[in-house]
Write a structure and sequence with these properties.
- This protein is α/β, with parallel strands linked by helices.
- Helix content is about 40%, strand content about 15%.
Length: about 350
């Protein structure tokens, strides 16, 4: 059986035959609160809602979701989570000082990370999730390799602080910034004793990468995850990519979830549901497009093209008024949560 057939949706039964003892461990189903970014809830309301849906892990991927880093507030959030039987993970945005996403008004990257390390310890999170940046950082005056180097320097500067607190930093493959191979390089150069990956299943498509390849590349380093489905298909310019509800894509999400539970046993499988109104186009027939991807191996890109060529167009979701956005967001999340819970039951 070819590797592509093995990982595709039709190969899930065959994959199941390879299941070992690790796959029988209970899956820690979680929620990345970016799924519910428009709700405007307190952290206690977020926790109550996620508890109703059976979440075992709640991932506060940005400071705004937890509300405050004041010690007394964090202790209250922790106590409420513990009363519900929920484990917490917390995170922040860019720690790369040369990224367009980095916010210097909040202090140096090292200072911002130091605050989050203290917060993680207080709230009981084993990790601090952080990002380098976004796809914009692949097209600026610095190549992505320079941004990676600068992020590594920041991480090395806080290494002792992270280890002294018994934590790890989980760097996400985020919004088109790094391919799996590049994030692996960042982790290994910073130090895999205290740095790992927050594996996102939707973002690889924004770096012209097959998400199954990203999983294979980063599995040994995964600390946590953001899981969502994606539709991809051919357009005259190259590829169209749209994030969709779980089960509505065509990247083989069932096989992806199976493989994740096999390769990353014990790690949280947390939904980050994002349904986009319009697909993003990747005009890879245009030579200028490749200025941001000159180091991408042809064999890796070929795997992405296989997904594109086998995909079918996905209809755009019906538009909703701004006042209905929060309601639609919950509908998308709840449909995805139902699908994922049923999938996990089928996979055993």
């Amino acid at each position: 059986m070819h590797r592509r057939e093995f990982l595709g949706g039709s190969g899930i039964a065959a994959f199941g035959l390879q299941a070992g003892a690790a796959s029988r461990r209970p899956v820690r189903l979680g929620v990345d609160l970016f799924s519910l970014r428009s709700q405007g809830w307190t952290p206690f309301q977020y926790l109550d809602y996620c508890h109703q849906w059976g979440a075992k892990v709640v991932h506060f991927s940005e400071i705004r979701f937890i509300g405050s880093l004041e010690p007394e507030h964090l202790k209250k959030v922790r106590a409420h989570a513990e009363s519900l039987g929920i484990e917490l993970e917390i995170g922040m945005r860019s720690i790369c000082p040369t990224s367009k996403m980095f916010d210097p008004s909040q202090g140096t990257a090292e200072e911002q990370l130091a605050r989050m390390i203290q917060a993680a310890k207080l709230v009981g999170s084993p990790i601090v999730r952080a990002v380098l940046g976004s796809a914009e950082d692949r097209r600026g005056p610095l190549p992505i390799e320079a941004h990676i180097k600068n992020t590594v320097q920041v991480l090395r500067a806080v290494r002792s602080r992270v280890l002294d607190n018994g934590l790890k930093v989980a760097i996400e493959n985020h919004a088109g910034d790094m391919q799996g191979r590049e994030l692996r390089m960042l982790i290994e150069e910073a130090g895999k004793d205290f740095v790992g990956a927050c594996l996102d299943s939707g973002n690889p498509l924004w770096t012209i990468e097959d998400p199954h390849l990203t999983l294979e590349t980063l599995a040994p380093y995964v600390l946590t995850s953001h899981i969502r489905d994606t539709a991809v298909w051919l357009v005259p310019e190259g590829a169209a990519v749209a994030w969709v509800r779980m089960g509505e894509g065509n990247i083989g999400i069932d096989a992806y979830v199976r493989q994740y539970t096999e390769l990353c046993p014990g790690r949280a499988l947390s939904l980050e549901v994002i349904v986009v109104p319009q697909p993003r186009l990747f005009p890879y027939h245009d030579p200028r497009f490749w200025e941001a991807y000159r180091n991408t191996p042809a064999w890796e890109f070929a795997r992405f093209v296989t997904l594109v060529e086998n995909g079918k167009p996905h209809p755009n979701p019906a538009p909703v008024a701004r006042e209905q956005a929060a309601s639609r967001e919950r509908e998308d999340f709840e449909a995805s949560m139902r699908y994922t819970k049923e999938l996990l039951q089928r996979l055993g």
